[in-house]
Specification:
The chain has 151 residues and is of the alpha+beta class. It folds into 2 domains: 74 residues, Sandwich (HSP40/DNAj peptide-binding domain), CATH 2.60.260; 59 residues, Alpha-Beta Plaits. 17% of the residues lie in helices and 32% in strands. A hairpin with a 5-residue loop joins strand 4 and strand 5. The two termini are 24 Å apart.
C-alpha cells in the first residue's frame, strides 16, 4: 500500500515524470478527505495521511514522507447540474443566490456547476436560467477563507 503524506510544491511538480505516476480519480467530496484509503485507476491502494483540512485539486501531485511522487489527482466525472444564462445579469444573480446557500459551487465565465439538488434546480429555473443534468468533473470553489498552498 502507498502512504501519501503531502502534496508537492509547484517547483517539485515540474520535476516529476507524470507518466510514471498512479492516477487518483476522485469526486469533489473525496478530494476534501485528508485521511482515507482510495483505489487508484491502476488498482493500487493509496492511504491518504495529509494535513487535516487539505483540499485536493485536479493536477495535484501526491508524495510520500520521503518526497517520492506517487500519484496525480484528477477530478472524476460525477453527476452535476450545469447552469447557464443568456444574459450576464441573470448569471450574476444565480451565482449570488447559490453562493448565499453556502453550497459547493463551481464558477466559470460561462457556467455554474453544482451537485444535483431539486430545490436549487427549481430556483434557477424560476430565475429563467438553463439547467442541464450531466456527468462531468466537478471542481467547486474552495471558499473565500481557504487558500490552496503548494508547499
Amino acid at each position: 500500500m502507498n502512504i501519501v503524506t503531502q502534496r508537492l510544491s509547484i517547483e517539485a511538480k515540474k520535476l516529476v515524470d507524470r507518466d510514471s505516476l498512479l492516477t487518483l480519480a476522485l469526486i469533489a467530496e473525496d478530494r476534501t478527505r485528508s485521511r482515507h484509503r482510495f483505489m487508484t485507476v491502476e488498482g493500487e491502494e493509496i492511504n491518504l495521511q495529509l494535513q487535516r483540512g487539505t483540499v485536493l485539486r485536479e493536477g495535484d501531485i501526491l508524495a510520500d514522507a520521503h518526497n517520492l511522487a506517487i500519484a496525480k489527482v484528477i477530478a472524476k466525472p460525477e453527476p452535476v447540474i450545469t447552469v447557464t444564462a443568456k444574459h450576464p445579469l441573470e448569471f450574476l444573480r444565480a451565482a449570488y443566490h447559490l453562493g448565499n446557500r453556502h453550497i459547493a459551487l463551481e464558477v466559470t465565465e460561462t457556467y455554474l456547476r453544482l451537485t444535483p439538488d431539486s430545490v436549487l434546480e427549481n430556483m434557477v429555473l424560476q430565475m429563467g436560467l438553463t439547467v442541464v443534468h450531466e456527468t462531468q468533473p466537478f471542481q467547486p470553489e474552495s471558499g473565500a477563507y481557504h487558500h490552496h498552498h503548494d508547499h
